[in-house]
Amino acid sequence: MLEADKFAVKEQVKFLKSSQSYEIFDGDNGELIGTAQEVIGGLNKTLRWVISKALMPTRFEIREKPDDALLFVIRRGAYIFRSRVEVLNADGELIGFFRSKILTIGGGFHVYDKNGKHFAEVKGNLIGFNYRIRTPDKEVELGTVKKKWGGMARELFSSADSYLVDISDELRDQPVAKMLTLATALAIDMIFKSESRGGIGGFGGE
Q1: Which CATH number fits domain 6-197: 3.40.720, 1.20.120, 1.10.10, 2.40.160?
Q2: CA distance 8 to 161
Q3: 20 to 30 A from 61, CA-CA: which of 33, 84, 94, 124?
Q4: Which of 17-31, 37-51, 57-71, 165-179 is predicted with the least confidence, judged by mean pLDDT?
Q5: pTM strictly above 0.90
């Protein structure tokens, strides 16, 4: 899956869903190359009907086609004001983590590698779904995430999202950095956008 440089991510529509799932396509040829599935326990699913899921712990498994082999995991523990989201490889080893900005109007989050080095910063806007992933000095753009509209009816009757992830040529031969950048893009919708809807802090700008 990491051979691709562009990804189209489509949220799966489920009635009264208690967990999220996504399909990941090659952004150039439309081939299905992976999935992202939220994996949570029965108690967690039950509590989500009475407690905002934005406050609950969560775990997403990203698997690649055709054999559904585990590629990496995105997980977050329970939190109140500021979340830490970790990215683990298939062997369960930490490769990086995200920290949301706390109590800001614009919001946003920072990306760190496994050693705590500041790897990237995510900046977006509060109106659309357009984000830029840049190095901390803002000199190099590592990737972009843009909303892909699925038609007026889809937007009116479903909260499902589709969006495009474009990873910079700077990371073409850096699989770990590419994995972390893809995880960053997925976390925008899977976790941080849900936190924003849950009314905790904000998300989008610097």
Answers
A1: 2.40.160
A2: 11
A3: 124
A4: 37-51
A5: no
